[in-house]
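Lecture 7 notes. Example A: sequence first, then its structure tokens.
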Amino acid sequence: MQSILVRLPSDLTINWAQRVVNKHDPRIIVSHVEIASVDVGTTTRVRIKVEHNKPALLPKHWFVKLPSLDWQAKLITALPRLLHTEVRFYNEVAHSVDVSVPRFLAAQSQLGKGSTLVLPDLAESGVSLGRPGDELSYPEAIQVVVQLASFHARFWNTPHLHHTYRWLGGPVRQLEDLLGTALAVPLMKRGLHFAGDLIPPALHKPALHYAKHRRQAMRFLTKNPQTLVHHDCHPGNLFWQQSKPGFLDWQLIRVGEGISDIAYFLSTALTPPLRRLHEHDLIAMYAQTLEENGVAHIDINNLKQRYRAHLTYPFEAMLVTLAVGGMMNQQSNRELIKRAAAAVHDHNAFAAIPFSVC
């Protein structure tokens, strides 16, 4: 198998692109590669135009994800091999999910040599790409919640789920959890400091208590029925095609509680007034869609309690993003912190985790 692994945008040459197209049709001949843009965050994202002789078979505009060139972001993402996880998602899971995901052109990962993911550039195909700071409407939120419920139902309490997808919970995930626990307190302190008055003073003490006992919190947040979850459902990881949402950036996919995706989504994608007005209806709609897709015995009251507890994670994730820096546009990051903090404050979410018994 011809390797498509590269480390730098400058490695995206004609010969490299030819190796990609050879996976689809050796009659396709690449004549030119032009880099349109390079964006460095949790990964290095490169948009390129590839001139070749069969545009009816393969798109000419590609979106390539490589390991981050930012050392701080790389420190957080390289050890737990987040891009490696996304590569495995596209190679092993994407074909079986009940949500819209990009068609991928090539995906490869190798220990010690990095990971490379090649997708069609959706921005060049009439698809609307979300931005992290977008404010979604209620009808858009309904669409996302229904899609997430369908995705979760597909894998809900599947026999041997952990065995089938053990690479999502093996050494890589254990290392990620270990790093998250080890860095939780300093990153929470740094995030709270940088966020300033975005965080209500009443949240500082419980947030630091959560960080100190993060391992216990994570155990409690995985006690209910398990499924596959996206784990990073903010507006910037959505795309829209004819008003139907699709999902991008599967680096954090894992086995977990489905309601965690709903908590992450509602607390980051909706303005606080809109979330307060509709979140109970949206949770009820999520439960109804699960049942319509074959998931039995949904306890709506328990689901709401789990939703409340899971609001703590998007709050932590957005503060860690700010603390590390270079992972998201700072203006968008601060807006999502404000929304997530409002959700945690509204629900007294940290009090929903019984640290003394979990």
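Example B, a different protein, same format:
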Amino acid sequence: MRITATMPRMMRVRQHFPDPTVTDIPKAVADQIAVINLSDRIKPGDTVALTGGSRGIANIDTVLKAAVDAMKALGAKPFIIPAMGSHGGATAEGQIDVLLHYGITEETMGCEIRSSMDAGLIGTTTNGTPVYRDKNAESADHIGVINRVKPHTDFHGVIESGLCKMMAIGLGKQLGASRYHKAFLRYDFEETVLDAARINIGTGKVAFGLAVVENAYDDTAIVRAIPADNIIEVEQELIIEARKLMGRLPVMDLDCLIVDYMGKNISGTGMDTNIIGRAMFPDLYPLPAGVPSIMRIFVRDMTEESYGNASGIGFADVTTTRLVNGIDRHATMMNAYTANTPHGMKKPIDFETDKEALEWLLNTLGLTPPEHSRTIQIHSTLHLKEVLVSEALVDEVKGRDDIELLGGLEPMKFNADGNLVNV
């Protein structure tokens, strides 16, 4: 039986979020590092390991290059280490490849990149979790921890995703990341990560942190250099600012969310759980209040920068055959193994075309006819500036100061292959 549906008409809208923006990133980094007087600690000739992560952080190549230049200005010898747990297929070469796609190479950075999956034990948390650190970082005189501070997709507390987590999971490589994620199923995330951060800082190797916070338009809003001893305290302040600045959907109660792209460069869970309202560990770590309630999620494709890692695909109710065909089984399996999230890699039913997927999905909304469904289409959970809202939502968004209507209602736009046009 061929399932058909009358599609809802859609309207493009633009959301207006608070948008503080750092316009001169190299100057901001240099100024911030100057403020914390690193010359008192880092001496000419000292080696400094700078962390490069796997997330799609805005302007990360510019931030890292500015940090390299700041270390050189002190007379130090900086190098970059991939600090990304098991990403890149949990291989040294794969992790260099991840950095390459962010424009981070030895040529562009002007320094060596040292990649290894070897990590050594440096301590044990109070709950018995071993703390590991990248051998290349361990060989340096100092470590500079560089990362974005943002709300975590799974865990919520006084610190979430940021410098402390980078010291634990990023610097811990696959070995450490796997141990931490196992511990998170029994022990408190916040307690474990803070303990790991304290152990890292307590070794005396960590010289400073460099935190960035982004606005809802995926641009750099805050750059903050922090002396090692103040990282935990300042990160608690920055996570509050990050949550205020993050993007959101224009309405919180939906029948259907259409996501053009998921990917590891979008979110650690492919789609940010704070946006889609689905928790990876709902019993252990429920999502905070104020997240959306969405009955059905359709994810259409995966970013090239995800390298086939489809972790988080399990959040979707339907997907496309083209996305499924693009999954790298090993990369996805290794990520799910390390994070202890086999449910996150479960593949939903897939369809050859978007039109077939939507016709099937919109007929699973109970008594709501497809054309009257509360549906939104987004590019990704990271890019929410412009979205498409269905006719049933127009009255709720019309007249709001934070939303601009960009035209009238139009039929859903499918190409000749039966696939939607991207937002």
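Note on Example B: The chain has two domains: 10-17+247-405, 25-245. The two ends are 31 Å apart (CA to CA).
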